[in-house]
Amino acid sequence: MNASPHRIGRAAADRSKRSPRAPLLVAAALLATAFATAPAYADDPGLGCAITATGSLSVAPSPVVFGQNARVVWNAEGEGCGPDDALLITGPGFDPATEIFPVGGGSSGPVLITSAGTVTWTLAVIDLSSDTGFTRILASVTVPVTAVKVVPNVLGDSRDQASRALSAAGYVVGAVGTVVDCDSVGRVSRQSPGAGTPLLPGSPVALTLGVKPPPPRVCR
User: Fold this and answer.
1) Measured distance CA(128)–CA(7) in Å, rounded
2) What is the pLDDT along the chain (220 residues), one digit of tens a residue?
3) Are the C-beta atoms of 27 and 37 separated by less than 8 Å?
4) Which residues of 6-29 are buried (b: 16+ CB within 10 A; e: fewer)?
5) Which residues fall within 8 angstroms of residue 28, CB to CB, at 6 or more apart?
C-alpha cells in the first residue's frame, strides 16, 4: 500500500504545540548528571528517531525507461519514532516542499520518467519537533534512463516531409506559423523544441515555415 503523505504546514503547526522544557530550577540540579549519562538529544526525545534511523530506497525497473512509469519503494525505522518524525523524498514524482511521509515502509504511485541521462531519488528523515528541524539523509538511488526519444531535425523539410519525420519519431505537428525567409520558402525555417531535445512520445513539435516577403519586396 502507498504511504499517505502529511502536509508540512500541519506538522509545523503541531511543532508549535510542544510542551515547554522542564523548569530551569529543576534542570539546574540535574544538569551535570544528565550530560554525563544521557545522549545529546535527551532534551528533545523526538530527535532520537532522526539520529538512529536507517533506511533503504529502490526503484523498478532499473534502469528506468524514458516516457514510461517507474515505482519507488522505501523503508525506514529508528528508535522511538512517532508522529513528530517524518520522511522526505526528493526526486521525480515527489515534492518535499509540500508533502512528507510517516516513518516506515511505503511506495509511490506511477512516476513518469521525463528526463534523460540519470535520475536520482533521496530518502531523508526529519524531526518535526526539533528546535532546529534536524534532517539526515538515509538512502539514495541513482539509475540511468534508457530509450530516450529526441526530436528529429526537420529544418529545410517541406511541411509534409516534416510531418512524416515527426510521426516516425513518435511526435505530432503542433502549431504551424510563418516567417519571411527567402532561403526556406515553403520549408521549415524553425522548429520548437529544437532537434535533439529529449521529448516524451506523442508531444507536439511547433513548425515555422518560410514565406516570401509581401509585395513590393521580393526575394533576391
Assistant:
1) 12
2) 556 665 444 444 344 344 344 333 233 333 333 333 334 444 455 588 889 999 999 999 999 999 999 999 999 999 989 888 999 999 999 998 899 999 999 999 899 999 999 999 999 999 988 777 789 999 999 999 999 999 999 999 999 999 999 999 999 999 999 999 999 999 999 999 999 999 999 999 999 999 999 999 988 8
3) no
4) bebeebeeebeeeeeeeeeeeeee
5) none
What is the torsional sign of CA 129, 133, 137, 142? positive
**Long-range CB contact pairs, 132-138, < 8 A, 24+:** 134/47, 134/50, 134/51, 135/50, 135/88, 136/50, 136/51, 136/53, 138/53, 138/54, 138/55, 138/56, 138/57, 138/76, 138/87
Between vectors from CA 180 to CA 175 and to CA 184, what angle results, nearest 5°? 80
CA dist., res. 199 & res. 202, Å (int) = 9
Q: Rounded to whole angstroms, how far apart are CA atoms 161 and 158?
A: 5
